[in-house]
Amino acid sequence: MHLANLTTAIIKKTALFIVVSFIYTFASAQENSPYSRYGMGDLVPSQNIVSRSMGGITAGFIDSSGFLPYSQSINLSNPASLGSLNSTIFDIGGEIDTRTLKSNTSPEKYKATNTLISYLQFGFPITPKKMLAKGNYWGIAFGLRPVTRINYKISADKRLAGIDSVNTLFEGTGGISQANFSTGIKIKNFSFGASTGYSFGNRQNSTKLGFINDSIGNLYMQSNTQSDSRFGALFLTLGAQYGIRLKSNNVLRLGIFTNLQQNLKAKRDNINQTFVYDGNGEIISIDTVTSSKDQRGTITLPATYTAGFTYSTPHWLVGADVEYAAWSKYRYFGATDAVQNNVMVHLGAQYYPGKTTSTKYLNFVKYRAGLYFGNDYVRIGTTNRPIYGVTLGASLPLTAFQRLRLGEFVALNTGVELGQHGNRQNQSLREGIVRFNFGIAMSAAWFQKRKYD
Fold first, then answer.
1. Which of 160, 193, 209, 340 has a Cα-to-Cα distance from 397 of 20 to 30 A?
2. Is residue 398 part of a domain?
3. Which pLDDT does position 407 carry in this prediction?
4. Pairwise CA distance, residues 332 & 39, whole Å
5. Is residue 349 part of a domain?
């Protein structure tokens, strides 16, 4: 009864945390990422907080260490890892994202801070008794997470020869989210899994043109060209892992997964109009030049492929991933964009003291570090835009050691990421990122039958 009351209290506090976080997310959102104008916007990290702290390794990763032979978080990327899920887990993550834009041609810079929900996942084992007796496992998970974000506002002034000076304002909002259902099965050393669900979202882009009228006697109307689209479709991710047990119970785990190409069904509204602003800054249309409603089309998102490994001992885990995305296949209502195929490399490590005879709290903390590097999928001109960063993090148990041995835990997952998009060799903006990641993972034996003597 005490456990039931404790679990209920934790759920209530977590639900309150989610609501407050969502409210604060919308209240504080002020991001301005100019490169999210291209493709489908900025790619949101697809990993959970644990993997992010290790440079983003996921392909061969399951979150178990030493004498705790069960997962303590849900691998969002490779569904095959759910074959090692043998306890109920509720996993939520959030982030405080600080971005600093710097120009390579001037000392000006722009800084924005946002608080965002990263993901919400719930997973549990459904292994039948006959399957369990053979040492095999079966787990499922479902949840919600963002995939991309579009948020930019860019103003540019230019003198048109023989006419006037013109101000162009580029604005955009939107992004893609996913609701997923995933399952994984582990048979001996081999695990395989699949994740499916619905990708959905919207994209709004507008270009407003206004003359500054520095020529006496000239009067020009402002113009607005705007496109609003809504889209959605099913997605499919397939993954596999293979564990090789070595001497001294060390394990080498190989992993691979792919997000198959998606064709999102979309509808788009277009308008080209002249306008003025009212006293509140809202647009008042004067004349509509062209317009269309519910134009049907397709948005093609490319396939991605990731392969990697982890090598784990009772106290250490190291791993690496290589990720490839075929963005040259991207199409938006049949049109291409300034995108390219890209490759990312992720490297990470974890140390877990895990001394069962010790009562010191720090012996039950998991310490993590990693790095990543590669090139951005957005390409302006002929120069690649490099991406690189370092990560640090830790999992802090909030549960007594006796409960950990029973497979019941609450852990605070934390991490910090220092990243950079672009460099001084690019004739463009550099984007520095400081991302503080935080999340709660909790487990309880909710689906296990109680036995009484």
1. 193
2. yes
3. 61
4. 8
5. yes
In a domain, 24, yes or no: yes
Total residue length of the chain: 453
| Whole-number pLDDT of residue 422 | 82
Q: How many domains does the chain have?
A: 1
How does pLDDT run across 376-422, given as a tens digit for each residue? 999 887 778 899 999 999 999 887 766 665 667 788 999 999 999 88
The residue ranges of the chain whose pLDDT is under 50 are 1-8, 10-12, 14-29, 66-69, 447, 450-453
- Rounded CA-CA distance 131/309 in Å is 26
In a domain? residue 37: yes
Find the CATH number of the domain harbouring 96.
2.40.160
* Structure-token pair, residue 93: 């993550």
The one-letter amino acid code at 399 reads T
Residues 92 and 121: their CA atoms lie apart, in Å, by 6
Tokens of 177: 């989210």
Query: Residue 8 sits in which domain range?
Result: 2-148+178-197+235-260+301-444
Work out the mean pLDDT of the chain and round it to a whole number: 84
